[in-house]
Specification:
The structure holds two protein chains of two kinds.
Chain A lengths: L1 H28 L7 H12 L2 H23 L2 H7 L2 H12 L7 H19 L1
Helix pairs in contact in A: 1-3, 1-5, 4-6, 5-6
Chain B lengths: L1 H35 L6 H12 L2 H21 L4 H23 L5 H19 L14
Helix pairs in contact in B: 1-3, 1-4, 4-5
The chains are: A mainly alpha, B mainly alpha.
Chain lengths: 123, 142
């Protein structure tokens, strides 16, 4: 059970952290001016030179391999619903790292996801 | 009006495709890992599992479907609102559990079903809250 909790944390923090890093990288890169092959290649080169992009890739890989390991140990009807905890982490990140306003409805959603994951984990 | 109707149908088809691709992809990943077996948490076990995962056809088919999910998700978001697409994503958790019972013969207790429903409603509530940066000026919130 401990290994499942540990790798579920890797899955959730890896995907959330990876998405944040790649989003920052892509925002710093900007968008391609035209959808032409040469322009797209220049855009890709610019993205690949961004440190945030390279920080995001290993995190996403960690998250994917954690998912595969979890699927080798636990039923999918537990693993995928439990991965919804990323919405909880995302909401806390939005509130306490990005300083966003989080509505009461969103907090209620967080409570429901937590309760749901607890029930799913109990089997 | 006809254009609006066509857009509605197009969005619905893409959302269904998106949910189906995500669920089929996840189910194939599970099937692939069932073929490989439980991975032992040792250096040798992880190295062996890594070699097995990169050569497993079922896993690559799953990844192909997950790429299809990403593509359809990004495409549908290019014309439809996130708040319109989001409920389908939440509904996906229930559909996946249903597929797990049908195709992988997993036993899902009543308690786990209640948990899945709570997760669906919770994800719906978290996702329905629009990011402030994308709010329309006419939709000012208190």
């Amino acid at each position: 059970m401990i290994r499942v909790i540990v790798f579920l944390s890797f899955l959730i923090f890896g995907s959330t952290g990876g998405e944040i890093a790649i989003t920052r990288g892509m925002k710093a890169t900007g968008e391609p001016e035209r959808l032409r092959p040469r322009e797209l290649l220049r855009f890709l080169r610019k993205a690949l030179c961004n440190g945030w992009f390279w920080a995001g890739i290993p995190l996403m890989a960690l998250s994917f391999y954690s998912l595969l390991l979890l699927l080798s140990w636990a039923p999918i009807s537990f693993v995928i619903p439990a991965s919804a905890l990323s919405y909880v982490v995302g909401t806390f990140g939005a509130k306490y790292i990005l300083g966003e306003d989080v509505s009461v409805a969103r907090w209620m959603g967080v409570v429901l996801v937590c309760a749901g994951v607890a029930l799913v984990a109990l089997g | 009006m006809a254009t609006e109707g066509r857009l509605r149908v197009k969005t619905l088809v893409m959302v269904c495709l998106m949910v189906l691709c995500a669920n089929v992809g996840d189910l194939l990943l599970k099937r692939g890992m069932l073929e490989i077996g439980a991975v032992p948490l040792t250096a040798a076990g992880l190295a062996h599992a890594f070699r097995m995962t990169v050569t497993n056809g079922t896993l690559w088919t799953g990844i192909f479907f997950l790429c299809g999910f990403m593509l359809s998700y990004m495409t549908v978001l290019s014309w439809a609102d996130y708040s319109y697409v989001m409920p389908a994503g939440a509904f996906g958790y229930a559909l996946l559990t249903f597929f797990a019972v049908i195709f992988l013969h997993e036993a899902v207790s009543a308690r786990r079903w209640v948990g899945v429903v709570l997760i669906c409603v919770g994800v719906l509530l978290v996702g329905q809250t629009k990011p402030r940066t994308t709010d329309q000026p006419s939709e000012a919130r208190a």
